[in-house]
Amino acid sequence: MAGNSYGTLFRITTFGESHGEALGGIIDGCPSGIALDFDAIQLEMSRRKPGQSAIVTQRKEPDDVQFLSGIFEGKTTGTPIGFIIPNTNQKSDDYSHIKDNYRPSHADYVYDQKYGFRDYRGGGRSSARETASRVVAGAIAKQMLSDIKINAYVSAVGPLALETPYQDLDFSKIESNPVRCPDEAMAATMEDYIKQIRKEGDTVGGVVTCVIQNVPVGLGEPVFDKLHAELGKAMLSINAVKGFEFGSGFEGSKMKGSQHNDLYNPDGTTKTNLSGGIQGGISNGMDIYFKVAFKPVATIMQKQDSLNNKGEITEMTGKGRHDPCVVPRAVPIVEAMAAIVLADFHLINKTYK
Amino acid sequence: MAGNSYGTLFRITTFGESHGEALGGIIDGCPSGIALDFDAIQLEMSRRKPGQSAIVTQRKEPDDVQFLSGIFEGKTTGTPIGFIIPNTNQKSDDYSHIKDNYRPSHADYVYDQKYGFRDYRGGGRSSARETASRVVAGAIAKQMLSDIKINAYVSAVGPLALETPYQDLDFSKIESNPVRCPDEAMAATMEDYIKQIRKEGDTVGGVVTCVIQNVPVGLGEPVFDKLHAELGKAMLSINAVKGFEFGSGFEGSKMKGSQHNDLYNPDGTTKTNLSGGIQGGISNGMDIYFKVAFKPVATIMQKQDSLNNKGEITEMTGKGRHDPCVVPRAVPIVEAMAAIVLADFHLINKTYK
Amino acid sequence: MAGNSYGTLFRITTFGESHGEALGGIIDGCPSGIALDFDAIQLEMSRRKPGQSAIVTQRKEPDDVQFLSGIFEGKTTGTPIGFIIPNTNQKSDDYSHIKDNYRPSHADYVYDQKYGFRDYRGGGRSSARETASRVVAGAIAKQMLSDIKINAYVSAVGPLALETPYQDLDFSKIESNPVRCPDEAMAATMEDYIKQIRKEGDTVGGVVTCVIQNVPVGLGEPVFDKLHAELGKAMLSINAVKGFEFGSGFEGSKMKGSQHNDLYNPDGTTKTNLSGGIQGGISNGMDIYFKVAFKPVATIMQKQDSLNNKGEITEMTGKGRHDPCVVPRAVPIVEAMAAIVLADFHLINKTYK
Amino acid sequence: MAGNSYGTLFRITTFGESHGEALGGIIDGCPSGIALDFDAIQLEMSRRKPGQSAIVTQRKEPDDVQFLSGIFEGKTTGTPIGFIIPNTNQKSDDYSHIKDNYRPSHADYVYDQKYGFRDYRGGGRSSARETASRVVAGAIAKQMLSDIKINAYVSAVGPLALETPYQDLDFSKIESNPVRCPDEAMAATMEDYIKQIRKEGDTVGGVVTCVIQNVPVGLGEPVFDKLHAELGKAMLSINAVKGFEFGSGFEGSKMKGSQHNDLYNPDGTTKTNLSGGIQGGISNGMDIYFKVAFKPVATIMQKQDSLNNKGEITEMTGKGRHDPCVVPRAVPIVEAMAAIVLADFHLINKTYK
Description:
The structure is a homotetramer. Chain A is of the alpha+beta class. Chain A has one domain (5-350): 4-Layer Sandwich (Chorismate synthase, AroC fold). Helix content of chain A is 26%, strand content 21%. The first copy, chain A, has 8 helices and 17 strands. Chain A has helices at 38-48, 108-115, 131-144, 184-199, 227-236, 249-252, 257-260, 327-350; strands spanning 5-6, 11-15, 22-28, 66-67, 71-72, 75-76, 81-86, 101-102, 149-157, 160-161, 206-213, 241-246, 278-279, 282-283, 288-294, 303-308, 313-317. In chain A, strands 1-2-3-7-4 form a 5-stranded antiparallel sheet, with helices on one face. A 5-stranded antiparallel sheet of chain A has the order 10-9-11-15-12. A 3-stranded antiparallel sheet of chain A has the order 8-16-17, with no helix packed on it. In chain A, helix 1 runs antiparallel to helix 3, helix 1 (38-48) crosses helix 8 and helix 5 packs antiparallel against helix 8 (327-350). The longest helix of chain A is centred in the last third of the chain and has 24 residues, at 327-350. The relative contact order of chain A is 0.18. Chains in contact: A-B, A-C, A-D, B-C, B-D, C-D. Chains A and B meet through strand 1, helix 2, helix 5, strand 12 and helix 6 of A and strand 1, helix 2, helix 5, strand 12 and helix 6 of B. Chains A, B, C, D: This is Chorismate synthase.
C-alpha cells in the first residue's frame, strides 16, 4: 500500500489499524525551535475522540498521544517527530461477524480484492480511527502557523443547513455545543435530529465549513499543486467525504463573470471574495473558505443485506458503538488537514525569498 | 515554482507560457510497446483548441503537437516522451495594457506578489493554455487504458442544468454539438444562451460531468491517495474549477445511511451506486462519476475597475478573443486529467500482484 | 529536517534519537500476504546490536523490535508496517560533557548551525543508532526478495585487506567470527588488530564488501535512478561511509576498453563481470558486488581538542562505550540498505509487465 | 521508465534519445528574477560537446540549447524552464549493424530485456548524449549559486594519476588544455597517452576530481539524504561511472581515528579536512572534494565478440566516432550534477529559517 504520506516538506506518514496495538505516525519537516503546547495537542485529540458527547459513538478510547522523538526540552529539534496512540479498547470479538462478510458501502470488499488479505477487525486500516494521527500532525502544524486562524464548523446535518454567511457567525461558539455548529439555535435542532436518527438505528450525513483567516499572500503552487487543489485532495482523503467546493463553489458555476469577479481595493484586498481567497492556485490574502460534504456513516443498526466471501447475500445488523452522524467529530479533522496543507505550502513558499 | 508535475509512476511535467515560444511537457513512466494512434491524440487537441466553433474563443491556434522522444517506429519505448506545442499566434501587443495592471479575479496580482516578476503576456503560466499539454498526456493515458471508457460532457451552463441521469444519455451525441452536451435539445438551449452572454460582453460558468466505465476493481490507494482524492485534486488543478463531487456528492450529505448504502449483488456489483464506483478510496468496479464546477471566465468585454502596480484603481475593458463559457473546451481536459490519474493508479496497482 | 525517508514504492521512514524514548519507523509499500519470519528479523537486529562481542561497543541494548501495525495473523496486510525499538539504556548523564561542546569529526557543530538547537545526548539523530530501524526494514525486504541472496562481509580493517576474490570465499563463514570476515585466518588477524586499537584508546576504519546473487535481469531505472546510483546513495547514507565502488570500481578507471568489456555467452550471461552485474543502470543477471569504505569512529578514548559553543578550544576525552571499529556491526546495515533498494526496484519493475 | 527526474525543489526532468529529433528537459523550481548569462550556459555546452579537440569524438554536434519557457526579458520567472537541444547530426545508418546485436558492456541487452523494445540507434536513451540536458540545468544552477565555486578536473587517465593535492593546483589552468588537467606537464602526458590509445583502436578510463568551495554551513539533510549521499548518487548516475569517494575516501578507511579527526579552529573551521567538508551529511563550510571513477568507453575500434538477439555470438567492430577517453568531456557533467545537488539543498535549507 502506498499513499500513507501527505505533504512534500511538512510531511506526515501514518500507520495503524483500528484494532492493532497502536496507531501513530511520523511528522517530517517540522522546523526546529518550536516550543510545543502539549495541552493544545491533546485538546485537538479530545475534539476528535469517541465518547465525547451523547451524539457520537460511545466507544471509550482515551486517544493519548505519546511522542517518541523530535522533541527535546519541550521544543522541536527539526528531526522527525514520531508518535504513537495506543489502542486500549480493542474488542476484536465485536468483529468476528464481519470476518467473512463485506458490509455494504464499506471498504471490506475492495480491500480483499486489492490485497487478497485484510485485517477485518473494525475496518482495519480503512477505519476512520486512522484520522487520529492526522489530528496530532495538524495540531503541530497549527502551532507552526500560529498567525493563521483555522476554524471549521458543522454547517449542515442531513437536510438541516445553516445558511448564515460565516462572516455573521461567532466562531467562539463552535465548541459551545456537541454538534460544533456556532449558531446555537440551529445546533440544538441538529442535536435533536441526530438523536432521533440514532433512535431509528440510522445515520445521517452533513457538511463541514472551514474558514482560514490571516493567510499571507503567496501560498500555493500554480498548475498542478494549486492551493485549493491540495486542500481538496486533503479533504477528500478524509473518510466518508463526497464533495469539496471553495469560494463560490458549485453556485459560482451558475453566475456571470460580471457578477463573479472580485474587484480590488487599492491595498490589493478585494471588495467581494467569491474567489475564496485563492487566485490561480495562490492565496491572495483574503479569507479562504470551503465546504466539505460527508456521506452518512455506512454502519447502521438496522438489518441489511451484505455479501459474504462465498458470493452469498446474507442478512446483517450493525454491531458495536458507531456514530449516528460523523460531522461533529470531523470538524477537528478538517482543521487538521487544512493546517497540514498550509504548513507544507508555507515551507515551500520560503524557497522563493 | 514547484508543482508542475502530476503523478507518481505515470508522471507528467509541463512547461510553457501562453505567449512564449512553445508549450510542452514530458510524460515519464509510459510502458513500452504501445502502438500510438497519433490521429486520436490530435483529435483530443482539436476538442480543446480555440476557434473550433462559434461559441468559443476565436483565436487561431493550430495546437499541433510534435513528439521529440520516447517513440520509435510508432511505438512507445518506455523512455520519457518529450513533446512541444509551438505557440504560433502570439500577439504580445494585445497584452501591453495589462503589463502594469492586475485584472480582477485573475492571477496577475498573486504572481507578482509571490514571484516579484512575471510574464504578463496573456496570463503567462497561469493561462489555461497550459492545459494543452495535459490533453496530450491524457490522450496517451487513454490509449494505455484502452479498456476503460472515459466520457465527460457539459451538464450545466450557468443556470441551465441537464437533470437527466447519465445512464439515460447517449454519449455518442456528446460531440454532435459545439456545447458537448449529449442532450441535443438542451445543447441548443445552452448554445443560444452562450451566444447571448457573449453579446452582452459577459461570460458564464458551468458544470462538466465525467463518467468512467469498465474500471477494474482495485485502483486507488487507501488513506491519503484515495482514488477520488486524486481525481478531485486533478480536477481542481484545472483553471477556473471551484468544486468537485463524486457519487452522491453534496446531495449525499443530506441522506440517511439506510438510503445511501449500496447493497451488493452476489457478483460483487451493487444494486445502486451512490458510492460513485469507489469504496474507501479504491475502485469497486462500478461506474465512477463526478461533477466539476467551473466559474465564469474572468475576462469580460465590459468596463471593470482593475488595480495597477502603483496601488491605483483604473478602468479596464477586456481585449482579445476570449471564451464566453469555458466548459465546452473543458470537456477534453477533464477527460485527460481523469485518464492521467487512472493510468498512474493502474501502474501502482501492478505492484501488488 | 527532510530526508528521513528512503524509496519510492517500498518506502521506509524512520524517526528517533539515540537517547529518546524509542526509535522506530514505518515501512510503506510492502506487498500483502508475506508470512513474516520474526526470528529472522530479530537475528538481523542481533547482528547489528551493541555488546554482541568483545570487539564492539559494550553498551547493553536489547534492540527488541515491536511491530504495531501492518501485520495480521503473522502475515503482511499491505498496509504500513509501524514499529518501535525502545531505548532501554539511555544514560543521559554520560553526555553532559558534550552539551556545549562540538566533538571533532562529529555532527554536533553542523546540527547546531543548521537547526539552532539539538538533542545533544549521544549524538541525537546523528547517532548510528538510527540504523537499527533500517535493519528492521531491510530484514523485511530480504523476506520479500527471498530468491535474491545478499551477503556482506568485512574485507578490510584499517590496513588489513582481504584480497581473495569473493568467488573464492565461503559466505557461510561470515558469521563464524566476530569480525564477520569469511576468511578465518584474516578474521583472527583483524580481531587482534581491533583489540590492539581499542587498547590504544583509538579507532580504525574498514571496508565492507557486498555481493548480491540471483538478481533477475531488469532491476534499476536508467538515467538518474540507475541501480548502482541508488545503491551508492543508500550506502553513502550510512554513518561514517566515505566511498562506494561497484564492479571494477576505481581500478576499472585504469583499464583499457579491450580489457574491461565483458564478453557475452550465448545465454546472455558474460564471461567476465567487471561491470558488476549492472549495465546502463539495469541489472543484467550477473552478480552485483560493491565495496563500501568506512572511516574510523570519531570518538576516541584519548585527549583531543574540541570546540565549545563560545568559540573556545577545550580539551576532551571520549566517554562511554564506543566501537573501536565499526565495520563488523556495519555488515547487516549494508545488507539491509541493499535489500531496501532492491525491493523498491523490484516493485517499480513490475509496472512494466 | 521512471527515474528521469533529479532533485526535490530544484528539479530537472530530461528526455531524449541520441538519434531522436531533439533532447531536452524541464527545470522546475528555479527561483524568479535571476538574470541569466546565456553565453555562460552555451560555454558549458561547448565544454561537453563532441568535436571540441583532437582527443574526443569527432562527431559534429553544435549542441545549441533553445529555451522555450520560464524566462522573460532575460530573467527567470519562477515558472518551469523548458528547453530543447536539436539533434542535427543523426546518422541512423551508422547503427544498423547493432539493430539485432547486443554490444559488450553496453546497455543494449538489458534494455531489450526490460522493455521488450528499444530505439537501437546510437544507444537511444542510454547514450551519454542525455547528459547534454544535465549540463544546461547545471549551468543555470551554477548561476543561482553564484557564491559557490565548483571546479572539476581530470586527475587520472588510465594509469596516469596526478598526485598533487588540489590545494596546490591552479584551477585557472583547467581549460588551458584539451584534457582538462590543471597540471600542464601531466596534461601533455595524458594527451599523448589518449592519442596512443586511440591509435590502438582502444579506449581508457580515468578519474575526475571535483572541488566545491565557499559552501555555506548547513546544506544537506541528515539520515538518508546526506549531502555526500546525494552527490554520490548524482555522480554514479553519470554514464560510465564506477566509483565515488569524498574527503579521505577509501584511504580514510585505513586510518586511525586519532589521525583522521579534523580538529577545530576557534571559528568553527578545521585544521585538517579529511571529512571533505561534510559532517553527518551536512556541509561544515570547509571545501567539499570528491573523486569520480569512469570506466573505459565500451565501444572500441577492434574486433570483439557480441551477442545477437537469436542467442548467437557474432563478431563486431565498433563504427562511428567515439571518445577514446571520456573524462575530458565528463568534467562539465560532474560540475553540472554537483551544481544541481547543491541548488536543491540550498532551496531545502531555506525552509529552516
